[in-house]
Amino acid sequence: MAGYWGPVTASVDCCERNYEISQYAGEFFNTISNVPMILLALIGLCSTIGQGFEKRFSVLHLSSIVIGIGSILFHATLKYRQQQSDETPMVWLMLLYIYVLYSPDWHYRSTMPTFLVMYGTAYAICHALFHFGLVYQLHFIFLCLLCLPRMYKYYIYTTEVPARRLGHMYVISITSGGILWLVDRNLCSRISSLPLNPQGHAWWHVLLGFSTYFGNTFLQFCRAQQLGWNPELRYVGGLLPYVKIVKSKTH
Question: Where on this chain does Ca(2+) bind (predicted)?
Fold first, then answer.
């Protein structure tokens, strides 16, 4: 079915029926489910700026906003060009995570960001030219795996119980979301026979938004500890964690 945006040209078509709810949103639930990611990233950005964290963390939250907007464009239009506006920023975000995770111990400070920017630019050009499918997915998984050892190192060196709990929340949300993504992707024929579509891909968006927020907040806490800022975890409404610097910065 073709809606307002015309025929589907994207190489990925999720299990949600196209243009079932609105002619302006090819996949309605997959479109609106990006809103939590954008809102959480805005909250994280305001907290990051207010607490005086390094610009890298502001860029992390801004990247999440870009991903959310790109995903909205993709799932609303189901066009291949907009699909790239979803997929390419995901790769850029992982490159940014690599920088945030590894740069504190990297002695040649200018080489890492220079290489990552060049790599990210080259990937974006190649993705636009060659229309990666499986290669994109394998590449993204590879970048995620590069981040895992360093994330685990931060976790084992953090003794604060609330921070470790935050790490658990990150793992649970990203793992649950990944499972729902796989189910929606590989069991669509069975899902389509159900009376009600559970919208696994939409829940992946929601859980990805929370996992990204939890992961960014965890990294901010660890970085504040490295800098001797005496951080504490506080909660918005008793639920949403953020890092509070409780004494003057001396570094």
Answer: 13, 16, 18, 27
Q: What tens digit of pLDDT does each residue of 124-168 get? A: 999 999 988 899 999 999 999 999 999 999 999 998 999 999 999
Reduced to 3 states, what is the DSSP secondary structure of residue 124? helix
Q: How far is residue 28's CA from residue 19's CA, in Å, rounded to a whole number?
A: 7
**127 is an annotated ligand-binding site residue:** no
Say if residues 90 and 140 touch (Cβ distance below 8 Å). yes
Q: State residue 27 phi and psi, 5-degree precision.
A: -125, 95
DSSP track, 47-73: HHHHHT--HHHHHHHHHHHHHHHHHHH
CA dihedral 42, 44, 45, 50 (to 10 degrees): 130
Alpha carbon distance 106, 23 (integer Å) = 50
16 is in an annotated binding site: yes
pLDDT of residue 237: 86
CB 209 within 8 A of CB 200: no
The candidate with the shortest Cα–Cα distance to 173, out of 125, 206, 151, is 206
* Residue type at position 202: A
On whether 27 is known to bind a ligand per the annotation, the reply is yes
- Closest by CA to 136, choosing from 88, 178, 95, is 88
The answer to whether 201 is annotated as binding is yes
**pLDDT at 93 exceeding the cut of 90:** yes
- Does the annotation flag 232 for ligand binding? no
Calculated CA dihedral for residues 134, 135, 138, 144, nearest 10 degrees: -130
Task: Check residue 171 and give its pLDDT.
Answer: 95
